[in-house]
Amino acid sequence: MSEEESFDYREHAAQSGDQELDKVLRPKSLRDFAGQPSVVENLEIFVQAAKLRGEPLDHVLLHG
User: Fold this and answer.
1) Domain spans of the chain, in order of start
2) Residues 37-56: pLDDT tens digits?
3) What pTM, to 2 d.p., does this model score?
4) What does each C-alpha distance from 25 to 17, 18, 21 come to in angstroms?
């Protein structure tokens, strides 16, 4: 098994500076998402509907 195949992210601590880099790279609002406008539009609808119902948003899995 190669090193890449056996890598377990749970065994590795975050590097110094990783959290700051995450803060810079992660979008702070839906307007900050790049590409896939239909996905962003659907997310906006899901969030607004949950707010109107007064409920938390169901789990959402984002990939990519």
Assistant:
1) 3-53
2) 998 999 999 999 999 999 99
3) 0.55
4) 12, 10, 6
